[in-house]
Give the backbone structure.
Amino acid sequence: MAAQPGEAIDCAQTADLAVATWRKIDDALSPIIGRAGMAALFKRSLYLAGADQPALTALVDVEIAPGDYAPLRQTMTQQSSADAAATVQAALLKTFLDLLTSLIGAELTERLLRSVRDNNPSSGEAAQDTSS
């Protein structure tokens, strides 16, 4: 379902914030796991989060270059409201953090992504919630 005209700006702003967050995560992790590693984690997160967020399932089969979050932005701007777009982002971010935590542990995940959380208060709660 596409956003209504007045909601399009809110969806776009929400999507822009999400993309900025993913770029910061990419910047933090790529020096350690490589761009291809980051891209693989992102794609796996899309696949896993797609079970609860059908909007993300279309991105699973899309060829996404490492560091390219434009397809995610487009998907988010097509949501019915800014809240729906934010829900998509929250689900994807939680899935990514859970996956990363399962691979390297909560403490290292927290340390690696501390700069993302510190520079982006809106992602702070999600970046800290690595226990579930």
In short: The first helix runs from residue 5 to 49. The CA atoms of residues 50 and 57 lie 5 Å apart. The chain has one domain: 5-128. The chain is about 75% helix and 0% strand.
